[in-house]
Amino acid sequence: MPGLTHWHSPNFHAYYPTAHSFPAVVGELMSAGFGCVGLSWVASPAYTELEVAMMNWLGKLLDIPEEFLNCSEGPGGGVIQGSASEVTFVALLAAKEKMVKDLRTLNPELKEADIKGRLVAYSSDQSNSSVEKAGLLGSMPMRLLPSDEKGRLTSTALIEAMEKDKAQGLIPCYVVACLGTTPTCAFDDLSDLAPVCKRENVWLHVDAAYAGTAFACPEYRHLMKGVEHADSFNFNPHKWMLVNFDCSAMWVKDARYLVEAFNVERIYLKDKHKGLAPEYRHWQISLGRRFRALKLWFVLRIYGVEGIQKHVRHQISLAEYFEELLRKDNRFEVCTSSMGLVCFRLKDGDKPTQELLERIHERKIIYVIAGQFRGVFVIRFAICSRLTQRSDVDYAWQEFLSQVEFIIPSNKNIIADEINEKKSIATIELPSAACENINCNEKSK
Amino acid sequence: MPGLTHWHSPNFHAYYPTAHSFPAVVGELMSAGFGCVGLSWVASPAYTELEVAMMNWLGKLLDIPEEFLNCSEGPGGGVIQGSASEVTFVALLAAKEKMVKDLRTLNPELKEADIKGRLVAYSSDQSNSSVEKAGLLGSMPMRLLPSDEKGRLTSTALIEAMEKDKAQGLIPCYVVACLGTTPTCAFDDLSDLAPVCKRENVWLHVDAAYAGTAFACPEYRHLMKGVEHADSFNFNPHKWMLVNFDCSAMWVKDARYLVEAFNVERIYLKDKHKGLAPEYRHWQISLGRRFRALKLWFVLRIYGVEGIQKHVRHQISLAEYFEELLRKDNRFEVCTSSMGLVCFRLKDGDKPTQELLERIHERKIIYVIAGQFRGVFVIRFAICSRLTQRSDVDYAWQEFLSQVEFIIPSNKNIIADEINEKKSIATIELPSAACENINCNEKSK
User: How crowded is the C-beta side of B426, counted as CA atoms within 13 Å?
Assistant: First the structure.
């Protein structure tokens, strides 16, 4: 297909994955075919009811605390939004609503506008651009605090920033913690941040857009330790969980703050079934809604828990394999490696790393993009396509090798013998065009 | 299909239409199949480029002023958003951005927060609930001003409200005019409102969510007279223009205010193609985008201008036919009739009208919903499905007749003889169950 960037090519390693699977495509097709609009329960009951059920299934798949689920007895619940950007903004509005209510309960003389004008939000400098955007949209300054050496927001930085703001008469209101940051897939430590949020009565939102899918595997759940203290939690099945864009899963512990931030009742939306099922239009920006729960249903039924776990573990193993390859060549340096993402650079510094990336971009054999970590320029290598296999990682590695050759010529000793023996491809002595052929041959095996 | 409300049944006459057509479904399927994410031009060039082209085609189809189009020389342009709710909110943010900039240019000592805390927005009490919601989301009080006897916002009401606010130190910032209000499809007079907005330096947004499609037909364009003075314009191809939900078309005269309200640059989004095509992520809330332009392309290519005009004219003619039927029975009163929507009631008042609606809801033969117009309870009858024909309007009318009989028994004289003769169905003498059968038979003819 001309004009498209092939996100589902096994040679696409840019950004993060965007999910794709045939069950999800069928779900999308059926949703378009039915063509209803779920603007309220009565406007298409199955839209709401299947979404309630799917958000419960999904919450159980990830093993998030039960009080987030629709099936719990409390005011918690889950909803499908369009994107993590939307969710971060929506949660910010709920946080604002809660803070205004809390402060006015303590001091009824405070004016709403005065409170709102003094609210502040926090996240790390590693959070997604959409977090900063949520602050812009919600007119709440978003402090992007310096992360630690592992790319994490720390309670120390958070406390310091909050104290500084409070000293200026401002009111800490909202914290966005990241489980899997965009640049390097770093994990903030929720059990470090949560006590601060609790003490300051600040809304803690957890953005696990990409990495959240990994919690389907018990061995990764320690990375969300402390999630029980969060007020809202978000991950995108449309990133890593095989559900086509858009499908962003959001849970809140107390949905009433959302509903109060959004609720605008008009007569043409009133009906007598009110109160029996959530009216999701009060949980989101738009009035209308597609039947996105159907995509989730198809994927969960056809892949099942084990299918999803297998997919996650396979993709992580491919990233680990790529990391191994990098570590065996001492021109390269692995900066971070987490889940399906490896960030690396050339030891010689930013300029040669940048040159390597430019060469790769110029050739269009594989696609990777730049990142920045602790002030240095890195190349992000993500396992993206559902179709990517070990041979595709080899193929990408050969592409990097062929191009680094023009920047830092190797001698055979530099490349660990092991790789050359295993692959039997004398890539490093060949000029670039020949390399490409060899890689193609390798590929077709 | 159990559990679904069949928006595309020819007997669905509730809310407004939501569009459905096979070309659009194919477009949606292909978009899901490609499964790319258009988070920037380079992340899938065709996503951006086809959208630019389609928004130009669409603007020309409706004959909106050229300065709104991407192909004009100025800073205007069009973008596909998810819903009119999103658009109204996004335009509000742009209006806020502009006002802050304008006021600080005049008086650099003014603080941003002080300006933002004093901004006010206006619309009529007939605007969609999403307009009020946009005010809530954007922390800008939205005054819902009383409409005139035709359901229109007037310059008199607008000036009065603005003067009142200014006297209290507030700053008028944003006006949402409706071309086709939700309750009755009333049209605000833009040429009446625009001079006020211009004088007060207020952003004028035009919400033509449903009725905008009618401007594909030259005979309805007089209803948007004055649109050249608007700052932004929105209509939903996903309502009446045969493009499946979601596809909401938004144009702005100066996109720079949007971009400035949204722009958050991060290194992983940077690339060297910047500036050549619009980066639509700065025009909207989310970072990711589906390939919605494809649905538009399929519909525009397969239906063509004439196909869309034919569809609009046919649906309006069906509403006019229903209005005729109502006018011939003196138990009924037509309250408003505009485009594909007729609002009516029983002359005997709210209570019997409400009872009639309850009976119709109970029976589930056709689906209509309530509305309110100038303080009275009305039933909204909208031509919704692409498949609705004259015989379906007859079918709905027989359903109303059969039920009104229990509330206001007729004698043969009340129902105009003409109808009975034409249809040869002695509906009015029969009890409800029998009516239903007759209607079904009538339908199957």
Answer: 4
Query: What CATH number corresponds to the domain at position A151?
Result: 3.40.640.10
Residues of A in contact with B93 (CB under 8 A): 137
Per-residue pLDDT tens digits for B146-178: 999 999 999 999 999 999 999 999 999 999 999
B193 domain residue, yes or no: yes
Same domain, B424 and B296: no
Contact B191, B225 (CB under 8 A): yes
| Residue B423: CATH number of its domain | 3.90.1150.10
List, in order, residues 6 or more apart from A144 with CB less than 8 Å away.
Answer: A123, A124, A125, A127, A131, A132
The residue whose two tokens read 């840019």 is A14
Q: Do A36 and B4 touch (CB under 8 A)?
A: yes
Distances (CA, A) of B234 to B165, B248, B291, B313: 27, 7, 19, 21
H-only helix segments in A108-189: 112-116, 129-137, 155-167
The two three-digit tokens of residue A193, written as one number: 């941040």
Print the SS3 string covering A288-309.
CCCCCHHHHHHHHHHHHHHHHH
The model's pLDDT over A37-79, given as tens digits with 9 standing for 90+, comes to 999 999 999 999 999 999 999 999 999 999 999 998 889 999 9
- Judging contacts by C-beta atoms under 8 Å, the chain B residues touching residue A28 are 28-29, 32
CB-based contact A6 B36, cutoff 8 Å: yes
Same structural domain, B123 and B262: yes
Mean pLDDT of A25-42: 94
Domain termination residue (choose one: A248, A264, A290): A290
Contact (Cβ atoms closer than 8 angstroms) between residue A204 and residue A149: no
- Asked if B244 and B143 sit in the same domain, the reply is yes
Asked which of A290, A324, A341 is the last residue of a domain, the reply is: A290
Q: Which residues 35-94 on chain A approach chain B with CB closer than 8 angstroms?
A: 35-37, 39, 42-47, 49, 82-86, 89, 93
- Provide the domain limits for residue B67: 22-301
- Domain match, A336 and A220 both: no
Q: Which of B44, B286, B358 to mutate to test the interface with A (most CBs of A within 10 A)?
A: B286
Are B280 and B333 members of one domain? no
Same domain for B87 and B225? yes
**B340 φ/ψ sector (left φ>0, alpha ψ -120 to 50, else beta):** alpha
Chain A residues in contact with B8 by the CB 8 A cut-off are 35
Domains identified in chain A, total number: 2
The answer to whether B58 and B250 are in contact (CB under 8 A) is no
Q: Is A254 helix (H, G, I), strand (E, B) or coil?
A: coil
Q: Is A117 on the interface with B (CB under 8 A)?
A: yes
Q: B129 vs A183: CB contact, 8 Å cut-off?
A: no
What pLDDT, on a 0 to 100 scale, did the predictor assign at position A442? 35
- Is the domain of A204 the same as that of A123? yes
Look-up of token digits 């339908």? B443
| Shared-domain flag, residues A216 and A113 | yes
The interface predicted TM-score (ipTM) is 0.88
